[in-house]
């Protein structure tokens, strides 16, 4: 459905995309995972015909994003990263406006947005600017869907949205996928990657890896340990100590715990714990864990940097 | 077509929901008109004058009494010689000097006519004009009453010289001028700001990624303001006529045509600005500086073009309001039709086409 090959784009001196290639199948929920400034927005803007690529090509449903931009604009639903509806228009007026712009009515495609819209319908006479973050996103999604697009492109739809709304939002995307809509969604949250069919890990304008979340985590070849400590201060000290330990490849703070990776046979739960105990840290819990997308991402980033 | 109507409807909603926009649209025109109107028609009270009476007979004394007891004038100085006139004007307090010729009463009796010279400080042309009108009125009134029974009409001729500004600017100049200013403000400034706002808020991104064409977006933005500007033009003409007595001597059709042409020109200018400005502030800045000031200063609205340095006179040719104000005055005050204003219409049309062509060329269908 979406085909991107060797796409490059620079803003002056800055290379935002350094030759990106990917394919998204019809009906797939595809995630672009990467930190801010990775090039996610640039890629999406090229796909929705807002930007012209410097080189390379991109097609959607066989339509070229440069030459067939008018046709693409009819079949794509786009939700920019920033809330981009009219704050002074009510929920209903916004929806009505976007339905009209695409030459349709709310009624015609109500079935598509029903599940989402029903949650904000009680507030349909409220100005969009006065909605909460989660509700704004639901309205924006409704507006992007109201013309029954074949492809939905969502730029960080869950950024700045509370945890509950984020979960609901992803449930909706899942439902939409079952209705045959191809969805390309970007997010800086690694945990959301698991909710996609396939993801592309993107960093500094290059794609590090493309696969299903399961395969990506499986591809993690090293041993991974989670180290739990008691206090924040202790965590900082332990990160420093672990970096000095021979045979450890990487040490990262992961929320409350520390993740360390190793290729060495003689590194295991027991001797890592002993090492820290000997350095004067008590109450340490070390266990072998399964890699998450974020672990893979860190690993790939480190390889890239070397 | 539905898309366009939907867009226009949305624009109207924006306008009607924003109190600030409403104030700019309907408050400012009325306030501006009233301000300009009353600044010019302010009553004369206790204006300081000087009198040079070469004759000092019973008739001149009567006239002097009548003038000074009217309440409009206050005697600042009695002059003795002609050469005192210039210095007293230069000092600035005295706005008018009335000069009676030698042997006034005698001349009036023998020849049936006598001369009064009224010299006014026209560095403020409107005040000067008004002072003269008042003075003249009083003298005429005196003559009528005094010589009511005479069979041969006796005349006192007053000869007026306007110092510093020999060509007086018409008293009704402010209505056409205000109209030019208001229509420019609403049409150009408001359209450029509203398009810039879409860019600033990111909604332009969604509008671009939709089947809307550039013409839809431009027409959708322009149509509401065209309509509202027309209403404003009507309000200005109506108030000018009813409150300030500015005549509409020409045909209403020609007037309407001229106003619509000018609004279209201003709207295209607004679109052109919005293609360059990415934020409301920039749009406001450009339309404020690049449009308002020239409209006020270089269009002949306040300062007569004939009195400008040659360089500014040349520059004023490129100011659309100049041609509009000129044509508007011709239509409203002189009752002229297309036969007289066609050069103005032609110039304004050419400017409109130029701005429109440039904006369509500059309007970007993408973010870059």
Structure description:
The complex is a heterodimer of chains A (306) and B (368). Chain A has 306 residues and is of the alpha/beta class. Chain A folds into two domains: 2-216, Rossmann fold (3-Layer(aba) Sandwich); 221-290, Alpha-Beta Plaits (2-Layer Sandwich). Chain A has ten helices and 14 strands. Chain A has helices at 40-47, 69-75, 91-101, 110-120, 133-145, 163-178, 213-218, 232-244, 269-278, 293-305, and strands spanning 2-11, 14-24, 29-33, 55-60, 63-64, 76-79, 151-154, 182-187, 198-203, 206-211, 223-228, 248-254, 257-262, 285-288. In chain A, the strands form three sheets. Chain A has a six-stranded mixed beta sheet with strand order 6-7-8-3-9-10, sandwiched between helices. A four-stranded antiparallel beta sheet of chain A has the order 2-1-4-5, covered by helices on one side. In chain A, α6 links the parallel β7 and β8 (182-187). In chain A, α3 (91-101) packs parallel to α5 (133-145) and α4 (110-120) packs antiparallel against α5. Chain B folds into two domains: 2-39 and 171-362, no CATH class; 43-163, abc type-2 transporter like domain (abc type-2 transporter like fold, 3-Layer(aba) Sandwich). Chain B has helices at 2-17, 19-41, 58-68, 85-91, 104-111, 125-146, 174-201, 203-208, 214-244, 252-276, 280-297, 310-316, 320-334, 338-362; strands at 47-53, 73-79, 96-100, 113-121, 155-163. In chain B, α7 (174-201) packs antiparallel against α11. The A-B interface holds A 45, 48-52, 69-70, 73-74, 76, 78, 80, 82-89, 93, 96-98, 100-103, 143 and B 2-3, 5-7, 9-10, 13-14, 17-18, 201-203, 205-212, 365-368.
Descriptors:
heterodimer, A: about 300 residues, Rossmann fold, Alpha-Beta Plaits, 10 helices, globular, B: about 375 residues, alpha/beta, abc type-2 transporter like fold, 2 domains, 14 helices, 5 strands, about 10% strand
